[in-house]
């Protein structure tokens, strides 16, 4: 009998089947999808939060800048009884030197059909306080004042007379021997800093001829700042009295105050009943006829969050203390509620508003 052969047993090796591997892959893919969805949602919220913070900061800076520019409006001429007259002016730096502007502290130009308004402020920039006074003798290049104290070569001045007749001139000399006459001639002169410059705002043949009238010194750096919304997206400001075209685009250079600012609205506060206060019924968009009764303006800026939301976030147009904003598509076209990133409803908004007293007007009219 042959002996029985025995072999060592081989241990069975265990492992994952194909089905188990596929199940694991599916579970892993589901986990990855959940992670990416979470990251995507978090990223969108992060952009929305950051955009909201940007809108808050940009709007706060813009409304502060606008408010600070409105407050001094009227400085240098607020006591003039001829406010509202058309000022004839010459600026040789302009493509067309002759231009005009209204002698008024704040002019609100209403946008058509709810479009953004334009605000224009006018105030002097003298480093000395020079009160308005009358002149008794006038020529095409000089005015004989009551006193030329504080008036310096290089200052701009508003010359006004009944009619009303108004003209802006540039003081070219204050050294006349009679001690009260100032000159506003063309050509070169030495300004108060001792620098030789060429008169920019004078003409040899004035548009207006004066005999007597009022004289208001508005300093060497007056401002006629025009605030507007550019391309339905940016708040800008230009100084109309300091024309410059450094980029040769044929336009006065502008300064950007803030982007994503899509609307600017404003009203006049007119003290119609002379009680030295503005009641709710005395806010108006109508251009005043009695400028000495304009004691304040109220303004509002609408700032849009730059983050597009997939769902409708803003279902109704934002409002301010004056009215409701007229909304448009993101590209500025008429609102037609398109189902795309152009729809204003898929963005968040912040309203920044302020009531700004005109301190120079209050100073001149309060009892």
Identify the notable features of this structure and list them briefly.
367 residues, 8-stranded mixed beta sheet, elongated, 2 domains, 5-stranded antiparallel beta sheet, 19 strands
Short summary:
Helix content is 16%, strand content 30%. With 367 residues, the chain is of the alpha+beta class.
Average pLDDT number: 89
What overall geometry do the principal axes of the alpha carbons give? Answer: elongated
Largest sheet: 8 strands, mixed
Number of strands: 19
Number of domains: 2
Write down the Rg: 33 Å
For the biggest β-sheet, the strand order reads 2-1-8-7-12-5-6-9
Structural class: alpha+beta
Order of helices and strands: HEEEEEEEEEEEEEEEEEEEH
| Tally of helical segments | 2
End-to-end span in angstroms? 140 Å
**Uncertain regions: pLDDT < 50 for 5+ in a row?**
none
Beta-strand content: 25-35%
Description:
With 367 residues, the chain is an alpha+beta fold. It has two domains: 168 residues, no CATH class; 95 residues, no CATH class. It is 16% helix and 30% strand. It has two helices and 19 strands. The strands form four sheets. Strands 2-1-8-7-12-5-6-9 form an eight-stranded mixed sheet, with no helix packed on it. The longest helix is centred in the N-terminal third of the chain and has 53 residues. The chain is elongated. The termini are far apart. The model has no long low-confidence stretch (mean pLDDT 89).
